[in-house]
């Protein structure tokens, strides 16, 4: 993921505003603290965008983005 793509995700979440919780991404992933979720997922991407360990983080952020888009 490029720095530009990370910035686009960050911009999307900033424009979408704070979401009501809990948010269920799937059966095993529940977001109970929206701000903490975003911070804990965006920071590792900014620090090392190409690390393979970030693949699940990117997946969860994209799932959240799709959920927000479908509810707008």
Architecture overview:
By secondary structure, the chain is mostly helical. The chain has one domain. It contains three helices and two strands, in the order αββαα. It has a two-stranded antiparallel ribbon. A hairpin with a 5-residue loop joins strand 1 and strand 2. Helix 1 runs antiparallel to helix 2. The longest helix is centred in the C-terminal third of the chain and has 16 residues. It is globular and about 30 Å long. The N and C termini lie far apart (25 Å). It holds the Pfam family DUF6965. This is DUF6965 domain-containing protein. It comes from Pedobacter terrae.
Tell me briefly what this model is:
The chain has 72 residues and is mainly alpha-helical. Helix content is 61%, strand content 6%. A hairpin with a 5-residue loop joins β1 and β2.
Helix-strand layout with pairing:
Elements: H1 3-16, E1 23-24, E2 30-31, H2 34-47, H3 55-70
Helix pairs in contact: 1-2, 1-3, 2-3
């Amino acid at each position: 993921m490029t720095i530009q793509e990370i910035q686009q995700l960050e911009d999307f979440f900033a424009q979408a505003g704070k979401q009501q919780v809990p948010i269920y991404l799937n059966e095993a992933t529940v977001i109970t603290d929206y701000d903490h979720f975003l911070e804990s997922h965006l920071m590792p991407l900014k620090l090392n965008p190409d690390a393979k360990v970030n693949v699940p983080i990117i997946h969860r952020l994209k799932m959240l983005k799709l959920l927000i888009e479908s509810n707008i």
